[in-house]
Each structure stands twice: as structure tokens, then as C-alpha cells.
Amino acid sequence: MSIFVGVDQVDKIFELTGGGQYIALKGIDLQIKKGEFVSLIGHSGCGKSTLLNMIAGLDLPTEGLVTLEGQRIKKPGPDRMVVFQNYSLLPWRTVRENIALAVDSVLHGMPAAERKAIIDRHIDMVGLRPHADKQPGMLSGGQKQRVAIARALAIRPKLLLLDEPFGALDALTRGNLQEQLMQICEENQVTAVMVTHDVDEAVLLSDRIVMLTNGPESKIGDILEVDIPRPRKRMEVV
User: Fold this and answer.
1) What pLDDT score does 2 carry?
2) Burial 112-141 (b: 16+ CB within 10 A, else e)
3) Looking at the structure, do residues 113 and 224 belong to the same domain, yes or no?
4) Which of 14, 78, 142, 184 can pair with 173 through a Cys bridge, CB separation 3.0 to 4.6 Å?
5) Which residues neighbour 88 within 8 Å (Cβ) at sequence distance 6 or greater?
């Protein structure tokens, strides 16, 4: 197996105010292959988001190495896009403009007509054509998260990172978006790492589920291979 994302003997230690240290993660070893969907699961405070942030380049390990295609991750980059629970959309821009801001910034060397086609394709991909000219305040929570997913995928990242992306949504909306994300990732062979508390969500979406032990000094307790054929149907899996 060729390693696409590598986490090699990673420790993460936080310095506490007033002295002392908190060891969040200890000896984390994980290899992810291209096109794989991996979920990180565990109790609150076990370091799931901390590990995701280091893969994103938003934080650095205290010890060890995190790599993407053999290159050390030292900072954020457009080859890794993060979808957060809170959507992170600009409220004064429309759906189209929020996606265009990312596309125009990262793919600025591409002709304007091609960039517009990419934006339109991703608006259609998440089913938001009727809402393309609305601002986020006019959208539901599920629609906002679809904008965030479209924006992330539109710049063609090598790696999609999801930090509890559906945690704030109602059960029906969450289920619909899970199926939509699963279909998008399968059709586009997206490599993804997702943090979740939801076991059913992890089983539905993942090729492997990485279970972290309780902190401090969280480790990988077990890795579950999800041996369920794709394409999957939510009602059949959960």
C-alpha cells in the first residue's frame, strides 16, 4: 500500500497556563491510502480534532512527523481543505460568491470561463442551483453545510478534512447530507478524514474507523475495517 497521508510516531503536548503540560496524543501511527475515507472516533477530549488539525497544517506535532505524499506538512495549504461544523461562510456573500472566492484565489491561473464552470458544477453537485444567489442568512443549516462542502471540493484538494461536519444538524438533514457526501466521495474518488462522535455515521461513510483511547496521552486503541460493499444505502447499513 502506498502511503498518501502518513502520521509517524506523533505526540502532541500543550503547555498549560501557570506551568505544567497536557499530553493530548502519544505515539500516533496512521497511514492512509489515496481514495480512502477514514473516520476518527472517540470520547470528547481524546484528541480527534487535534490530530485532524495537524493533518490540516493548522497545528504542528510536538514530536513525530505528518506527511502528505511524502512531504512534511508544516502549514495549511489548498491541497487540504477543512469543512468545520460551523460552516465558516462569509455572511455578506452569496452561495456562488463564497465558492468563487476560494476558486478564484486558488485556481487564479485558470481562464475565467473555466473557473465559472467549476463553480457552477459544484453548486449543482450539492443541489443548490435554486439558492446560488442567496446569502447564508437565507439558508438552512443543511444548505450552509452543502455550500461549505462544495467550496472545499471546488478547488480540487488532494485531501478533504471534516471536523464533525453534521454535528449541529437535525437527524433528517444529517442523514440526507451523509448520503450526499458518500455519493460525492465515491464518484470523485475523494480521500477524506473525518472526526465524528456518531458511530452509525462512521460505519456508513468509512473504509476504516480509527478509535482513539481516552485522554490524556490518547493513543490509537483499534482500527476497524468496514467490510461493507459500496455503494451503500443508509437504511441497509444503520
Assistant:
1) 81
2) eeebeebbeebbebbebeebbeebbeebeb
3) no
4) 142
5) 148
74 and 165 inside one domain: yes
Give the helix ranges, DSSP H, for the chain: 48-56, 95-106, 112-125, 141-154, 171-188, 199-205, 234-237
Same domain, 60 and 172: yes
Is the same domain home to 18 and 92? no
Residue 134: the pLDDT is 97
Q: Which domain holds residue 192?
A: 1-79+160-238
Sheet of 63-68, strands arranged across: 21-32, 5-15, 63-68, 71-72
* Phi and psi at residue 98, to the nearest 5°: -65, -40
pLDDT at 183: 85
For residue 12, the domain's CATH number is 3.40.50.300
